[in-house]
Amino acid sequence: MRDPKQRRASASHGGAAHHLADKLRRHSTWLLLLWFALSVYLFLSATPPPPRPAFLPSNPRAALRIYVYDLPARFNRDWVAADARCGRHLFAAEVALHEALLGYDGRAARPEDAHLFFVPVYVSCNFSTANGFPSLSHARGLLAEAVELVRGQMPYWNRSGGADHVFVASHDFGACFHPMEDVAIADGIPEFLKRSILLQTFGVQGTHVCQEADHVVIPPHVPPEVALELPEPEKAQRDIFAFFRGKMEVHPKNISGRFYSKKVRTELLQNYGRNRKFYLKRKRYGNYRSEMARSLFCLCPLGWAPWSPRLVESVLLGCIPVIIADDIRLPFPSVLKWSDISLQVAEKDVASLEMVLDHVVATNLTVIQKNLWDPVKRKALVFNRPMEGGDATWQVLRELEILLDRSQRRHVESWR
């Protein structure tokens, strides 16, 4: 005869099992849904992103395929034919990049094979007869006309809203197209360019209206032969301590009513104009690069915009750039570690500049010069025609590949 306690325990166990089974049946639908959702998540997590062009750092040939629009000559070639300065001045990256990409091995012969589309419009070649400087009054209209032409003749702009189209904006404040920052900010980037990729000399840390689009910071244009016309940097006789030649106003507030260079150049003149260690000149001189090649330090203060062609010229000539432009963002930082080849001095510290430079001479001058005189770094800032491995156009292609990769990753994440 079974013990009553065992019967009660058995009944209790059977009841618990029956209750659990009933509970599982009632929740089976939810468990199946949970299992299905977990399976989908694990599958998607393991699925690689869509294939992207493989960029080969040692040889970018046929990696990133770019289609170059063949626009009517009024958008580009006619400007160079009218004035040779168009292809050689500090804003001429728009010309140099176009010519280099025409000979690029990765140039797509058919637009349907392209990853990106280059729109060659020269907006900095409209030289004013009044002062000889480029006038940008036509830039927005000329670009808008080019975009309408591209949209009307091919479907590629419309399918992406221009997101895979590349433009050069090599003027002071990039695609805001005005040399005065307050006006540039008020005007902003034209709406039709905001989804495109901009190659621009302007770049600052943090947010700024004139860089509110995908963009690559590029160096200002300096003719490639500058690197060859003077002795190699390590062989130059450097008998000038600190050099600057350029616009320095005695009275900081000029006729425009604005403070040029935020008064930095005026303070340089006031503090060091009579100091024999500083070679400061206000007048233009055609052979000024020979002076840079004789200098230990080349001062690169901001003008209207923070960047200056002196940055590139200094590196090419082996003169340590002394950058006085707060929050500036410099080109190709992954290749050019600027802290190793230049000095940055805050705008407010101009009065202490001599002490800073003396300290460098006493401590790590030789190290900086050795880094600066590396020919790889010089090449990275020069737009050769045709393009050469490692030069500025090559670096632009590398940066564009990174942007394209980032864009694809964003697309995959949004799809997930």
From TrEMBL:
Keyword match Cell division: no
Listed GO biological process terms: glucuronoxylan biosynthetic process
Domain of life: Eukaryota
Entry's transmembrane regions: 29-46
Key words, A-Z: Glycosyltransferase, Golgi apparatus, Membrane, Signal-anchor, Transferase, Transmembrane, Transmembrane helix
InterPro entries (alphabetical): Exostosin, Exostosin_GT47
Assigned protein family: Belongs to the glycosyltransferase 47 family.
Stated name of the protein: Exostosin GT47 domain-containing protein
Source species: Oryza punctata
Phylogenetic lineage: Eukaryota, Viridiplantae, Streptophyta, Embryophyta, Tracheophyta
